[in-house]
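Q: Got a minute? One more chain.
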Amino acid sequence: MDKKILQKLNHFLGKAAINTYAGGGPEVDPEEPGFKELEFEEGDWYYKDSYAGFFQSWGREIVWYKQKPFWTQIYGGGMTQKFRNDIKFAHKTFDFLKKALSVGEKQEKFQPRGPQKFVDGDWKYLCKWHGDITRFEGHEKILFNKEIVFTHNFLGGLIITPKKKSSLLEIQKLLKEKSNEKVKASFQKFIPSSQKVYGIKVPELNKLAMRHKGSGFEIVKELWESRSFEEKLLASKILGKICKKDPEKALQLIKIFSKDICDWAVCDTLATQGIRSITQIKQREIFEISKNLIQSKNFWERRFAIILLINFAKDKNLKKEINEIIKNAENDKEYYVKKAVEWIKRKLR
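A: Always. Here it is, folded:
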C-alpha cells in the first residue's frame, strides 16, 4: 500500500475523531434503528461511526475513500458490572473517555483509540495495542480511584478486496472485437465530424450500456475522456441509466461534456438519453443550462442547448418558455444549429 495514502488516511482519522465522538460532534439520523451515528467528510474521504448500547455497547468505524470502503475499526465493551445501573457515573466515564480519545498527535502518528496513558485527577485511561494502521487490535480501560470501571476491546485495519479488471479496458477490448468496417464507413459518411470510430452497431452499444451501468459515474467519465465516437456515445447512454442516483452529479458532467462535443449523434444522445430520467425533477436546472449554452460561440453547444429542450416539447405549459429560448438561435447560420431549430419547432406544433 502506498505510504502517502496511509499518511493521508491517518491524518483524516485524526480530524474525524476531533469532529465526531471524541470532540463531542453532533449525531446524524441513523440508517439503522436504535443506533447512534456520527460522520465526517473531507474531499475524497468519508468517515462514519455507528454504535448501539449504553452501559455496554458495540460499534464500528468505517472510512470510505473515493466512495469505496477503505478502513474499519470494530470496538465493544463498556461499564464493569458494578456500575451498569449508574447512569450519572456512566456519563462521567464517557466524558473522560472523550477527553482521552482526543489526546495525542493522532493526525501525525497512528493511534487507534487514546494514548497509552492519560490521567486527569482521579481518572486514569490505559491503552495497549499492537499492529499498525493496516491491521491492529488492542484493549483499553478506565480507572476511577484506582478501580477499573470501564473496558473496551478493539480491532481493525484496511479493507482489502480483489482488484477488479478495468471496466474501461474491458469495454475497449469488446469495441475492437466487435468493430465492423461497413458500420465504420457508414458512421464516417453520415457523421463526418466524428473523431476515432470503431464501427459498432447501436444495438451492441445498448447491450454494453446495460452491462456496465453498475460501474457508475466513474466509467462514464473515463469513457468520455477516451474520446472515440462510440465511447462518448456509450458514456451518454450509461449516464442516462444512472443519472437518477445522483442528479446533481449528472448535471455537473453534462456541463463538462457539452464543451467537448464534435458531432450531432453524440450531442443528441447526451442531450436526450443522457438526462431523460431526471428531466422532471431537474427541469429548472436544465433550462438554465440551455439558456447559457445557447449564447455560446461554440455551435455544438448551441445545438446541445436546443436539443436539451426537446425533452420538454410535449409539455404545453413550457412551450412559451422554450420558444423564448430558441429565439436566440432562429437566425443562426450554422447548419447543425439550424437543423436543431427546425426539429424542435416540429416537436412544438
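A: The two ends are 61 Å apart (CA to CA).
Q: Perfect, thanks.
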